[in-house]
Automatic annotation (TrEMBL):
The lineage of its organism: Bacteria, Bacillati, Bacillota, Bacilli, Bacillales. It comes from Rossellomorea marisflavi. Keywords: Membrane, Transmembrane, Transmembrane helix. This is Stage V sporulation protein AEB. It comes from the Bacteria. The chain crosses the membrane at residues 6-23, 30-50, 85-114. Pfam families: SpoVAC_SpoVAEB.
Length: 118
């Protein structure tokens, strides 16, 4: 069990290091860095490489932003098998809608409860 926590920490940390290097060294704006990581997660998922990473690293691979790209691809693939080309769009929205809705609700509640500085 300790090894599972260790590898989750290492893999999640490496994903975050890549994101930080994109910001500091490559000088990507934050939106570009996040978009880049989502695209990398999507490509890895499309190639069948992200699921083995999740099996190996657990939360270290499912929590960072790259897993959003993985979710998009998985949803699109599942629904396209059932509904054809229209399933590509509906599958992406179906799989990710709960996470996006939660981010909106919790962001709104945070804005109500706390006074931002600046």
């Amino acid at each position: 069990m300790l090894a599972m926590f260790f590898w989750a920490f290492v893999v999640g940390g490496l994903i975050c290091v890549v994101g930080q290097l994109l910001l500091d060294v490559v000088k990507f704006p934050p939106a570009y860095a996040m978009s880049f990581l989502v695209v990398v997660g999507s490509v890895l998922s499309g190639l069948g490489l992200y699921e083995p990473l999740i099996d190996f690293a657990g939360a270290g691979a499912t929590i960072p932003i790259m897993s959003f790209g993985n979710s998009l691809v998985n949803g699109a693939m599942q629904e396209s098998q059932e509904h054809g080309i229209i399933g590509v769009l509906t599958g992406m929205f179906e799989v990710t809608s709960s996470g996006i809705s939660a981010a909106i609700v919790f962001g709104f509640l945070g804005a109500l409860l706390f006074n931002p500085k600046g």
